[in-house]
Every structure is written in structure tokens, then in C-alpha cells.
Design goal:
The chain is of the alpha+beta class. It has a domain of 120 residues: Aminopeptidase. Helices cover 37% and strands 27% of the residues. A seven-stranded mixed β-sheet has the order 1-2-3-4-5-7-6, with helices on both faces. Helix 4 links the parallel strand 4 and strand 5.
């Protein structure tokens, strides 16, 4: 079940299920998340395109195998895709598999609105919302601002969690 469209709706956002015809957009979106890394390679454009296609395919395949019952949603604004939201409902939590927005859609509150709606869904279901984020990802600040707390260190990334009651799993375990 997609999250409600309340805060996101105030920005004219909506969700729809991803289809095979969306793959060119998904690949373009994925590339925007890797541009800084690609800029350091010195690779010719053709090789960058091949690398992105292969990496995006591998990521997509991993997601589908790891989360077979997930919601694979595109985030649209006025009927045009601007991002993706992949969410899985597990027995004990909602798991944010991935959220990504095009660069021109970042920094204006759209991601926060989408996440606030997801947190509202968690609140209604009485379930925490979990995610993993690379330690250097700027979105981490947004997650912290929304009340996510680090619950596990995964090396290059951290597992974070938001709880509807405001408590943290780390506090439950006596971790910090």
C-alpha cells in the first residue's frame, strides 16, 4: 500500500506504480545519484553509460529479489516523474528501500513531504520505519531532522530507524 498523499499532495505530488516503460527514467534518475562518483573516473561518456546501465540493473535485480512484495513507486509532480519511492511492509516495520529525486526536485521540501507521509503511515500502522544510508549521504541530515536515529553501524552506511512512539531501538538495547 503506498503511503498517503497528504504532505506530498500539498506540493502537487502523487505516486504511481513503476512499469517497464519507466526504465529509461529510472536509469536517468539512478545516474544523478552517481554523478559525483562518475566525475572522478575520467571515463569516456559511452563507458559511463554502460557502467550506469549495468549498476542500475544490478541494483534493481537485488531490490526485486530481496523485497519481492515491495511497492515500486514513481513520484510524480503534475504528471511527470521526478523520483522514486521503494517501500516494503514487513511484519515489524516499514522498510524504506530507496528514495531518490531528480536534482532539480531536491532541496525544496519534496523529499521531506514524501517521508512525512511515510512516517504517518508508520504511525497509523504502529510500526517503525527503517532504512540504511551511506554515512556521507547529505539526505542523512533530513532523516535526522525527521526523527530517525542510528541503530546500527554497517561500516560505510548506517541503519536508521524512526519510531511512532519516539523511542529508539538503540535506547531499548542500551546502545548509543
Amino acid at each position: 500500500m503506498p503511503p498517503p498523499v497528504r504532505a506530498a499532495g500539498e506540493f502537487g505530488l502523487s505516486y504511481r506504480r513503476k512499469t517497464e516503460t519507466d526504465l529509461p527514467f529510472i536509469e536517468r534518475l539512478y545516474r544523478t545519484t552517481r554523478e559525483e562518483e562518475l566525475a572522478l573516473t575520467g571515463w569516456p561518456e559511452e563507458f559511463k553509460q554502460q557502467f550506469i546501465a549495468q549498476q542500475q540493473f544490478a541494483q534493481n535485480r537485488h531490490f526485486e529479489l530481496a523485497y519481492p512484495n515491495a511497492e515500486w513507486l514513481l513520484i510524480e509532480r503534475r504528471g511527470a516523474p521526478i523520483g522514486r519511492l521503494y517501500v516494503a511492509e514487513r511484519s515489524a516495520e516499514l522498510w524504506l528501500i530507496d528514495i531518490a529525486l531528480l536534482p532539480e526536485a531536491r532541496g525544496g521540501g519534496l523529499g521531506a513531504a514524501v517521508l512525512n507521509d511515510l512516517l504517518e503511515q508508520g504511525r497509523v500502522l504502529g510500526k517503525p520505519v527503517g532504512l540504511t544510508v551511506f554515512k556521507t549521504n547529505p539526505a542523512r541530515r533530513l532523516y535526522e531532522r525527521l526523527g530517525f536515529v542510528k541503530v546500527d553501524d554497517g561500516g560505510a552506511y548506517d541503519r536508521m530507524e524512526w519510531r511512532p512512539d519516539g523511542a529508539s531501538a538503540a535506547a531499548d538495547r542500551g546502545a548509543g
